[in-house]
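hey m, so remember when u said the tokens were messed up on ur end? i reran from scratch. heres the input so u can diff it against urs
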Amino acid sequence: MTERRPLTIRLAAPRGFCAGVDRAIQIVEEALKKWGAPVYVRHEIVHNAHVVSRLEALGAVFVEELDECPEDRPVIFSAHGVPKSVPAEAQSRNMIYVDATCPLVSKVHVEAERHDREGREIVLIGHAGHPEVIGTMGQLPDGRIALIETVEDAEAFQPKDPSNLAFVTQTTLSVDDTADIVATLQKRFPGISTPHKEDICYATTNRQEAVKVIGDGAGLVLVIGAETSSNSKRLVEVALRAGAARAELVASAESIDWDWFDGVTLLGLTAGASAPEDLVQGVITACRSRFDVSLQEIETARETVTFKLPRVLNTPA
């Protein structure tokens, strides 16, 4: 039997579920306990197929739009947030609905509305088509929020009144990329209103900081997460920028191409904010079956944030 070659795994901490994702999943579970199955969920509750499959097995039904939901069953809005028109439609149909929007995304919604009330033109830094961006832009009438995705967009942006501007950001962006866009906007429009506190959420920032440490000098970094997960994709980019020779997004251990490990002695491992810990352990187990693994957990921050569940789940059905 050939001797297995050594592989050091640097495991990022924090990784995986954030407080907003935890809360959203709990909301679906508690709604099923309270109202029984089926409970409808508009859009994937979080961007992870394994989480969605588990909740489907419990009786959750995932749909893309509200018109796919019957009026006599509860509906839950995903953690990414929804345009104002969605709860308005649910109310007009007398539906029971529970909003699982992450409180940190809701904070951005409130900020955008405040700037609009105070007469400012609003710029949203984010990725077109992402559910969170659709939800934030949908807090105000069409045309009130301009989307900026890149530094080039920031350089080309022509506001109606350059002296009366504000910006907000998607919560799951790359901290470094966003800093470049913000710097461009602030250089062009020195009076632009900034968020009271950084919009990019603590969990996104913490996971990116951890990846910078585990990525430095790694032959390969694996990020467990979904193709649709913005924060997971950003972790791949951050790993490469931090000095990893290669970085790959994988859904689970089954998605790994073991040829990636040729010549690799140091592996960085993390998970996006909507990926469950059992997928991380699955990758470690798969590595142990092929290599002589030594595991190092690298903790760069400790997370103690929790969010309360909506009050409607605490009242009798």
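this time it looks ok to me. The longest strand covers residues 6-13. if urs says something different then somethings off w ur setup not the seq
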